[in-house]
Batch of 4 targets.
Target 1
Amino acid sequence: MNETLATAISDHGALALVLAIAGTTAGLVRAYVSHRTRLHEEREASTRTAARAAWLTRLAEADHDVVRIVERDRDGHREVELGSLDSARRDATREAA
């Protein structure tokens, strides 16, 4: 009877060891996937920022009276209007003349 009890306990111990190894492996895989996802999102945001800066530079070099930029992304909603003060001054100068 003692041999049967010892065999059952050792079987349960082996099962516990296998489950512990599987759990540790699953945790490491999850951490790796999470890390790679975060790196990919940061790289994508950096690329988007560089493209936005290049576009804004091109837009600033062009000759426009008023430029209105509306952005919606995961950070929120932004509206920027460029050149409105300069054009308002020009309009006021034209009216005065």
Target 2
Amino acid sequence: MGYQGDRFRERTSRELLCDAVALSAKIAAFEAQRVAVVAEVERRCTRVDHGYASTKGWLSSVTVVSPGAAGRIVELGAGLAEHPAVAEAFDEGRIAFEHALLIVRFCTKPPKGMPAEALPGCVAALLAAADGPLARTDGVRTAIAKLEAIFESDDQPTSEDTDRNELYVSKTLNGRVAIRGDVDAVTGEMLLTALSKYSAPQPASEGTPDARAPRQRRADGLTQLLSMLLAFGELGVEGGERPHLSVHVHARDLGQDRREEYARRHAGAGATANTRPPQDPHHPDSANGSDSTDSSDDTDDTDDLTDLADRRGIAWSPWMGPLTINTARLLGCDANVTAIILDEHGAPLSVGRTHRTVTRAQRKALAARDGGCAFPGCGATAAWCEGHHITHWADGGPTDLDKLVLLCGTHHRLLHTTDWEVTIGKTRHPVFTPPTSVDPAREPVPSRQRVGTCTRTRVADRHPPRRSTVRRSNVSGEKDSADDAAPVH
């Protein structure tokens, strides 16, 4: 048969462009047909018919389709049968396979807070985001993240679930090291940010392009990154500044009250999807005389979901895409922060001076006071911890020692995503107050540095049955007073 490219060598540039578009349309049509056929095979055929334990196994064994791709084909076929609007757009070639699968997965497992009658509007919004050749996966994921923010539930997005993180580093028989992993969006953002400088193409001095494949450049970049880290403890400079984690978030979203947000999500089935916390006179949106009666806030979120840009906000990271506001607030506790003022169209108006919210000197003082993660029963060392603002700096909280507490990543996330609260007592040590789901009386519990002289039930036994569990330890002693302290945000 020969090389297929020989057929096109005599074609003009214009003809080649038309051929590529026409063939792509045919491939999309055949892909839709394959999904439909495989869906029917899944519905009707059994092991007796094709000789395999599953349709996925059969398809990957008799074609060049990988097992993972075969499983996605089976999954999409089953989902399209339940959602005809998505099936129509996919069959007509308006949305890509990957985008159709993302939408089907959203429909199959929608946010717990979303009423059933809102699903058609959500599907329409997602189809609009996925429609046409200019649609990109990040855009579809962003639309999904915005919908999940509108109909929030207790479930953490898969992309931010740190309990799913895995990293395998194994020595092989030939003396090499095999690395395989699956990490959350924030960890991925940090990794890609750190690798960016060292994995970029490096042309030779005479201008010859870098011949290394991307996978080779990333491996070389990891080697260089680790060498720099071990030798100097720094990551060099890229684009005029040290590599750092960047998260873009609107001030009005970053400043939302976490406790009121948590209470809204737990208000019960009677709460509507567009419930907002009470208007704070010091909130950024209250400037220029605006109030909570603005017409944009009175619109029911379930009525029109096509204009997602004006809906409940999300944070955005350059490499990994959308993040929840809670994660943005968590990252903002102990970080370098640069304020970028945007106009109503999202265009930058000015860039403020970068400042660090928790200084190195303050971290040393926190380590001396808290001895590591201050959460009762936790044994994490100070080197593994982050400085947490008792009142978030976005809400006007100062970066003072008496307004900070040292927490490990697990308990830092716990305070940002649940109704646990932390205050500084009269002895100037942290005091933690559990939510009613843990202790209906909400009796304060002293930090781990203050638990050696009392008799008290184990904190771990009072912790809610969540994924982020607290290490067990005996907690005893007179509890610190919670007076004169601000609740956590």
Target 3
Amino acid sequence: MAKALKVLQIVPSISLVYGGPSQMVRGLSTSLAKQGAKVTVLTTDSNGDEGQAPLAVPLNQPVATDGYETIYFRCAPFRRYKFSLPLLQWLRQHGAQYDMAHIHALFSPVTSLAATVARRQQLPYILRPLGTLDPADLAKKKQFKQLYAALLEGPNIQGATALHFTSDQEAKVSERFGAQTRDIVLPLGVVLPNFSCSEAEAKRAIRQRYHIPDGVPIVLFMSRIDPKKGLDLLLPALEALHQSGQQFQFVLCGGNPQDQGYVDAIGEQIGKSALKHCTTVTGFVTGELKGQILQAADVFVLPSYYENFGIAVAEAMAAGKPVVISDQVHIWRDIQSSESGWVVPCDRTMLTQSLADALANVAECRRRGENAYRFAKENYSWDAIAARMVETYHQLL
């Protein structure tokens, strides 16, 4: 019998407040375990960057988690950057016991130094950039990132067994800092929220909870509240839609543990606009409530300026919802080819028109939502992706 593959998943935090990357590592690790791999997740107890309490978890010891084990380390002293010296010490002592390290995030001190440790130990490692090599992301703090890349990420990329991208477009646009790399392209899977009731029951519950009248369609944004998500396009588009006489309720779900100031500014902008009386702001949601909101929505929208995959889009598709996204969400070709929604440039007028088209045609919305569900089920299944990942690990080794 073949020896079980021993894999480390290293990520700055798996708190759900950080959104897609945390969900991805959890889903991948569970499914890898189902494939027979022995998976250990190394992470910190970080649970937000602006005054939030850390995760209430045991530290420096394995915690059984859905078929795999998680080891949490204290996030200190640089809480905002999710640094942990004990994590790096553990990796230095135990890394040689593993076959592969899968490291999620670049330009994060703990993962950058984890890659450096792995490289020096000759432990094969894969880097998943999470969109940080996109030119739009690299343009932020450009000089700092150029220096950071010269000192750490450039050598780490050069020494990596492979770079893991989640779409062909992400791989195509990503910077390598002159390094010669082997790329693998594997999409992310979807861990469906808890659908504890039927869609009809969820619709009634959400409309009652947020006082949304029957017959008023729900336009849902459910993602991190961040400038890159295109809210500066979406809010004016919705204002134009409202002024045209189109009825809708905009449901804004999400937070940003790294920039509460921006979240507050968006709330103030809505409060001073024509959207004030047709917007519901829920904050960050998870679990049963998240599932009910997805079920209750009529259309999902995410006009991001850049998105290496778009896990929130995949979740909405898996819930059977048609999506309106920008062509900078890197799975836009999947949406276009499967007729699972509408794809637009980062343009307010075209975004407004696509939302108007979606809301004006209930039957077409339903058809595209059904297409979305089928496509997500066939292509964003964690079990299928994990099987391909295990095969990829063996090929790389």
Target 4
Amino acid sequence: MTTFLEAPGDRRDAQAAAADAAVPGAACLQWREVEPGFWAASADGNFGGTVERVGKRFCARDALGTVLDVFADAASARHRVAERFAQTLPAADRWE
């Protein structure tokens, strides 16, 4: 299950967790607030991306630092990072 550690007042956590559950690989992401307004995602020691508060908006970046989009709330930004992270995971059948 995705772990969210974010600023108080973000009420979309339940919705974001439900949405992330539908994204393959997103459930393993853990979020940590590195400093006020800056969150980093990781999964099993792999860097997943960041969400940064910029004024009243939230900038989502993937693991390479590429800006994915800017969102009105942190939950939507985290969801977008989770989607990109899931896209970068290798297909399970490649390893069999």
